[in-house]
Amino acid sequence: MSVGAILIGIALALVVGAYLARPFRPATMDLDRAIEAWVAEARAKERGSEGARERENEETKGTINYCPKCGRRVGPDDHFCAGCGAPLREGLE
């Protein structure tokens, strides 16, 4: 018998032993339950961050404006965009 055949036999015996000992291993968390818990946690975090974004938008309403033509930030009292010159208020053309 060669050394290679002995090593293959040992490896095969280890694989079969691990397969047969599988019912005796300690139970681990079910994969489906773990995924469901992770998804529920991610959704809860997303709901929390959406509420924070809405509160932030309500707080900054009217203080930060953007030009409708070029998208540059403009002040709340500006009548024209400093970047492209587009009128920011109705009736300023």
Quick description:
With about 90 residues, the chain is mainly alpha-helical.
Question: Which keywords apply here?
Answer:
93 residues; mainly alpha; 2 domains; two-stranded antiparallel ribbon; 52% helix
Write the SSE topology:
Layout: H1 3-20, H2 31-60, E1 65-66, E2 73-74
Antiparallel strand pairs: 1-2
Q: Give the percentage of residues in beta strands.
A: under 5%
Instruction: Describe the strand arrangement of the main beta sheet, using strand numbers.
Output: 1-2
* Number of domains as seen in the coordinates: 2
- Catalogue the unreliable spans: none
List the helices and strands in order.
Answer: HHEE
Distance between the termini: 97 Å
The beta-strand count equals: 2
- Net shape: elongated
Question: What would you report as the Rg, rounded to the nearest angstrom?
Answer: 32 Å
Mean pLDDT: 78
Can you summarize the main beta sheet?
Answer: 2 strands, antiparallel
Q: Helical percent range? A: 40-55%
Q: Tally the helices: what do you get?
A: 2
Q: Please state the structural category.
A: mainly alpha
Oligomer: single chain
Structure commentary:
This protein is mostly helical and 93 residues long. It has 2 domains: 59 residues, no CATH class; 32 residues, no CATH class. A two-stranded antiparallel sheet has the order 1-2. Strand 1 and strand 2 form a beta hairpin. The termini are far apart. The relative contact order is 0.06.
